[in-house]
Design a protein that fits this description.
Blueprint: E1 2-4, H1 7-10, H2 30-34, H3 53-79, E2 82-84, H4 88-114, E3 117-124, E4 126-137, E5 149-181, E6 188-190, E7 195-197, E8 203-206, E9 210-212, E10 216-217, E11 223-224, E12 226-237, E13 247-248, E14 262-265, E15 274-281, H5 283-308, E16 313-314, E17 321-333, E18 336-351, H6 352-363, E19 372-374, E20 380-383, E21 397-409, H7 413-420, H8 428-432, E22 438-446, E23 460-464
Parallel strand pairs: 3-23
Antiparallel strand pairs: 1-2, 3-22, 4-21, 5-12, 5-14, 5-15, 5-18, 6-9, 7-8, 8-12, 10-11, 13-14, 16-18, 17-18, 19-21, 20-21
Length: about 475
Amino acid sequence: MAQKWNLGDIVPPDRERRSRPRPQAPHHGMGDMRRPMRPGGERPAPHHHEDDPALHHEGELHHHANEHVEDDSLDAEIRDIEIKVGKSHRMRRYLTIVAVIAIAIGLGIGSTILMSGADVTVMPKSRSVTVNGTFDAHQNPKAGELGYELLSFEEEGERTVSATGQEKVTERASGMITIQNAHSSTKQRLVKNTRFESPNGLIYRITESVEIPGYTKSDDGTIIPGSIEAKVLADGTGEEYNIAPSSFTVPGLKGSEQFDTITGTSKEAMVGGFDGMKFIIDEGELAKARQELHLELREKLFARLKTDRPSGFVFYEPSVTFVFNSLPPTDAGNQSVTIAEQARLLAPLFKTDDFARTIAARAIPGYEGEPVRIDDVSSLTFSYPSPVEDISAADPLQFNLSGQAKIIWTYDVEKLRNDLKGVAKTALPSILSGYPAIEKSRASVKPFWKDSFPKDIQKIRIIESFDSFTQ
């Protein structure tokens, strides 16, 4: 619409109004033509007229009259100016707002699509149980028996102590061998002091009687020998018995078919054999040095156990045992001797799944061997019924467990994700009917308007929860 504006709306009232130059009546005389022009188009009066009052008065009246006419004319012109308020600025503002909203909606939709996926929250079947009893574990378990694997680490350390002299000493070497039974599917018993012979004719004897488990067969019929570890002691003295890992036969079985099917092997060298002069060391100083070495070696071995222990097994720190062997001392000079100790750590490890099944079978009535896991194995306390110094020859290995445990039924997570791939959200109950380990569930699919699970299984997340279903 057209809108008229007053002068005060355009020119601030406190600003001096300036008039445009108006053409004036010509003045006669060359002097007027030669006078310089003032700003605004006026020429200054000639100097010889400045003192004439009449002329001065007349010029002033003429000047004021011209100014009044000019001001009125200017006001009239300004009042007649029409200023049109255009719509282009308002339209640009509207278009900008619409564009921002459209971009925001587009970004929202785009991010929603990019963040698309599905969360399936499930509550597996679980039972809280009280455990308190004695369990058996076998190095070569049969069906239904709990097995265990023996983890072994070794470290050596040295200390320098004072010596007071030398004396004649004879000592026998010792070590561990694994005895195998490929002769029979039944146990084979070997009595204490049964001899084992190395390829170079050196004889070692087992320090305790053992029963070697019978062999088993693989699916293709291959015989898998039963085995057990046993400690052996050299039949003679001297360093010649400190042999490297080797194979052994049983001389007492020579001439029978058992000679080739009941054998032994060692994974580590025999140590401790000595026959000669040894340094005499103060017993108190020697005991203190060995105790320090044992503590140092224990810490090193425990550190290795924490970092080098295989995954997929249950381990309890109280199950660990240590075997220490003193190595021959050496002359360090200046009436000093370097003593050395060898430490061997032994720790039984239980497969996680088998361990949980064994606990469930003992603690849950009606349990039928379904796949389960223990939520926190550290909630159970492990102990031996009696002190154990060397568990390498223990078969079965007996131990006690006590405490509260939560047993959770397990299921194949990857199979579940594949079963959900691309199917309708409403099909979730039907699919989970094939997973008896899952008691409750709910699903959330993004974006919200989709009614089916993603076709990319990487976008399907399975979340286990117990608390959210009890609220």
